[in-house]
User: Fold these one by one.
Assistant:
Number 1:
Amino acid sequence: MLILSILFLNRTLRLIIILLKLTMANTSKIDNNLFKVPLSTGFRRFFYFVKPEESSFDSPENVPSYINEALPFFFVLIITENIINWYKDKKMMRLNDAMSSISAGIISQLPLLFGRSIEVVVFCYVHKHYKIAELNWNSPITWWIGFLGVDLGYYCLHRAGHEINLFWAAHQVHHSSQDYNLSTALRQSIFQRYCSWMFYAPLALFLPPQVYMVHVQFNLLYQYWIHTELIDTLGPLEWIMNTPSHHRVHHGRNPYCIDKNYAGTLIIWDRLFGTFQAEEREVSYGLVHPLQTWNPFNVQLCHFKWIWLRFNQEKTILDKLSTIFKGPGWHKGTPRLGKHEELPEVEYPVKLYDNHLPYWYNIYVFAHFLILIVAYTELVQFKTVN
Ligand SMILES: [Zn+2]
Ligand SMILES: [Zn+2]
């Protein structure tokens, strides 16, 4: 045990030295680039506090990657949330869970290093070949239509992500954490974009692609800060906006939370379409059948595997197709979304999937993880457009 500890101490120190060298070698670059925008600008973007005139562009090429510019802010807010939790003696982020979430976030963004998002490609194609009107990119009215259109598109794709098993296979990644904190927001699927483009494509019939590209990013940024237990309720804003309270319900696995609150920015869509649920009692987070792994590949692929098994088990072509296109809770003899009464009640106290490593193992893994973060941050410097 002692030899192992010394070995890991040695490896860890070497990794930290490599990390420091990497950071110091690029100190000037990182110092200049870490916060690409003023702090006030960076933070208000999370709340959609942006004016149309500062976020309207004449071409898709000129739209900044707001997500990449927000990267350091993600980590500043995660650290801040944990300091407050520690100060208030509340539940802190678990390192294994947070690393699993952030890894999923990095994996989900990797295809963007090699090319444009399929959502943007399809949007530009539809707009170029099939548009029926051309709204003025420079008009505040277009900006507001973009805001509402993208948010409604998000509601539809999010609802489909829960009600169509194939899309759920992608979206379940976001729900697979049993914790609920800012790191959970980063837990995203690499496959989600391959489902979501079709829900935004109708907007391309009239909305300039650059307006879409701005709002789809702000819509995502807005959803970051609502992944927290630190904020209880926000008074009258709860009527109109998606809030931490509403989104906690969305992440709940208690039967009363299932298939509720699909909103991105505005909760009005859920109120309009009958999927709204207020937070009533303690929420237990995660999947109805909690995931028992930290393996990032399993996190991304497990439900596709499960669908494949179910597909092969079903006898008729109709049932095979139902396995793919009906809800994740469907089985033969139930309605499209399954039976609500079949949802298992949560047993308290909740048993979290967890494992404990020796102290030095944790440092070793964390050092690797820091290198990964630095490497990823360096890589995205080359990428300016989503
Ligand atoms: Zn969801
Ligand atoms: Zn969420």
Note: Confidence is low (pLDDT under 50) at residues 1-9, 22-31.
Number 2:
Amino acid sequence: MISLVSKRANVAAAAVATLRLATRAMLVGAALALLLPPSGLASAADGALSRDDQTCLACHGQPGMEKDMAEGEKLSLQIKGKAFAASVHNAIGCSACHADIDLAKHPAADKKKQTLREFSIAKVAVCRQCHEDKSKLYEESIHAALLREGNPMAPLCSDCHAPHAVLAKAAASGPIAEVPCRKCHGAVFKAYAQSVHGLARAKDSNGGAPICADCHRAHDVTAAASGNHIKEACLACHFNALQLHKSWLPNAAHHFEAVSCPACHAPMAPRRVDLKLYDSSARERVAEKSGVPRFESRAMQADSKGQGLDALALQSLLKEFNHDNGDTILRGRLEVDGGPEAHMLAAKGKAIKDCKTCHREGAAPFQKVTISIVGPDGRPLRHGAQQDVLQGPTSIDSVRGFYAIGGTRIKLLDILLVLALASGIAVPVGHLSLKWLFRKYPRQSSVPSAQENSDSASDKNNS
Ligand code: HEC
Ligand code: HEC
Ligand code: HEC
Ligand code: HEC
Ligand code: HEC
Ligand code: HEC
Ligand code: HEC
Ligand code: HEC
Ligand code: HEC
């Protein structure tokens, strides 16, 4: 930052020099006299605007100032001086980001033919000069990938940080409604706002409940369904979650692999089984090679009737992928069917606890099945499959176990499940009776029978 400050001083000195020579000096002077109180011309103090910045704002502080772009768009040229003065960038001044503006020749007579979008993209390149680290992270994001593809909705730095009103991070945790992601992900925001986290965050923005960037990161945002980064974010805050689930859920670690957290914690959301193509020798998900799309065409070909892949078609699809990726198998995951729905996380009392929701014939979460591969920008490409691929003898081998649930044919599971249920239930029962014994001793005289050991009594006792 030190080098920046001196750079800034040079820029500022140059700007002052050109200003002195400017043919528009008279005009500027008149505008300044009109707009600024005499004290406003004093040197920049804490939170005050520097003299140079006041010069720019003498024109750009005026409401209604606009520039016509090509194709009829209008660029508002008004900059709110107060907001800028309160922002972190007051310290660097206008010219640090607008070094190309030479007051002697400004405003330029030749009006470049540009769209608003082109203007924004060109201007925002300046952020990189001082924020190399964040820019690098951003370059790796799905948002930057979309920008490179020419997606007009891909966010630039300035879509999330109003360039003339950037607040310090500490001061920026305002109401959740102001989160920059909301503009473009409105449906997700709505679901989030009603979740345990959104409600908690709305009550207390410093209470530790996550907002978008806490689960997705702010700059290196990647496809939500790729990798384990979201689960890892959950577990970084809820670090004892696995331990707590183990107390009632057998094979809790296996469930954490095979079932996404929202699949149980967004109880009202529709669910599906996604069978992900997985390269078991490279130990990673099979990804579409850029420029050589294979998945869509192969899936369409195998699914000639367009009714979803059946077990045979799925096997032939796998065979094709086995030609280029040595050992392609399927890895199943039970997840929420829909982006906004994945955010409807409810309080723990509402989470799905009943084993039968999933472990019984014809269980609802297993009625929708998709096959997926990692697409070019990290988002999955999906193709529908028929429900019976989960049981078909051809896929039993490749699905490697995922068939076991919601199946009708595999009786072995029923036996396994009965065993698991027995041991699973034994744990909480054991806990309860221990607690009961434990509590009974000091309260022997006041507790006539175990029946009266109600939850409310124990709550009071604990507090
Ligand atoms: C004399 C009034 C005046 C002053 C002083 C002034 N501007 Fe401008 N500025 C304009 C006008 C008028 C336009 C619109 C030009 C057009 O329509 O092409 C403009 C356009 C701009 C634009 C839009 C992009 C472009 O190049 O057209 C930027 C950015 C800008 N000014 C920044 C600044 C900065 C930074 C300063 C101070 C260093 C400054 N201006 C000082 C009048 C002024
Ligand atoms: C942190 C860098 C930065 C600083 C400091 C800065 N600007 Fe900008 N400015 C930008 C960027 C980026 C844009 C393009 C915004 C967009 O996408 O429209 C811009 C755009 C503008 C525009 C065109 C209108 C608009 O909003 O797009 C004007 C006028 C302008 N700036 C004037 C100023 C003035 C006056 C100051 C000082 C008071 C200033 N800028 C300080 C980065 C900066
Ligand atoms: C999709 C929205 C989004 C985009 C695009 C974005 N940011 Fe951010 N940025 C955020 C959010 C949210 C935060 C605050 C939360 C955080 O840091 O995790 C933040 C924080 C920052 C911070 C302060 C971080 C710190 O820890 O001190 C800087 C500096 C920053 N961004 C610069 C940039 C630059 C430069 C770009 C463009 C290369 C950019 N941002 C693009 C959303 C975004
Ligand atoms: C000339 C250098 C410079 C340029 C160019 C610049 N910034 Fe900054 N930025 C700073 C300085 C200095 C700070 C305040 C000190 C700090 O926290 O790093 C800052 C702070 C920030 C913060 C808040 C960081 C925090 O810790 O709270 C964000 C966000 C940010 N800048 C975004 C941007 C964006 C977006 C752009 C491009 C439109 C941009 N900056 C261009 C120098 C610059
Ligand atoms: C200017 C618009 C814009 C803003 C602001 C924005 N995004 Fe995005 N984002 C997009 C677009 C467009 C996509 C492409 C997919 C889509 O349309 O949903 C996308 C994709 C994503 C994805 C990947 C979706 C998937 O299917 O896996 C995530 C995650 C994401 N954004 C998170 C965020 C977060 C977090 C923020 C705020 C820090 C944010 N976005 C701000 C436009 C935006
Ligand atoms: C098979 C369904 C299921 C899955 C998968 C699941 N949970 Fe849970 N979770 C529950 C249920 C049911 C409860 C409530 C337990 C209770 O009432 O004691 C719970 C409780 C919690 C709690 C509250 C713990 C406490 O006692 O305070 C947190 C936090 C939590 N889960 C986070 C997660 C995270 C993070 C994941 C993913 C890594 C996850 N859960 C996966 C069903 C599940
Ligand atoms: C508690 C963590 C968490 C928070 C907070 C969160 N998300 Fe998500 N987000 C997720 C999970 C989990 C998924 C689904 C991932 C999957 O498919 O496995 C997801 C998926 C997404 C997707 C992809 C949707 C799709 O169509 O597939 C987008 C976009 C997104 N989130 C944006 C946001 C935005 C914007 C916010 C803030 C309003 C936000 N998220 C807050 C965890 C979170
Ligand atoms: C930044 C930390 C953070 C992250 C990341 C996070 N949480 Fe939370 N979570 C919290 C806090 C804090 C609360 C308590 C909110 C409150 O005050 O009610 C909470 C509450 C919950 C609850 C309700 C617990 C109860 O007692 O009813 C569940 C369930 C939960 N989180 C699941 C998740 C899941 C699933 C993820 C990932 C998709 C996740 N959390 C990500 C911090 C986090
Ligand atoms: C939200 C759905 C869901 C709920 C609720 C659920 N499970 Fe599972 N369970 C699964 C999935 C998916 C698998 C993975 C199957 C596979 O990999 O073949 C699984 C696997 C299992 C396995 C086999 C583990 C192994 O290592 O092969 C057992 C045993 C099991 N669950 C018992 C239970 C019990 C007992 C409960 C209730 C306390 C329960 N499950 C609740 C979805 C669920």
Note: The chain has a mean pLDDT of 78.
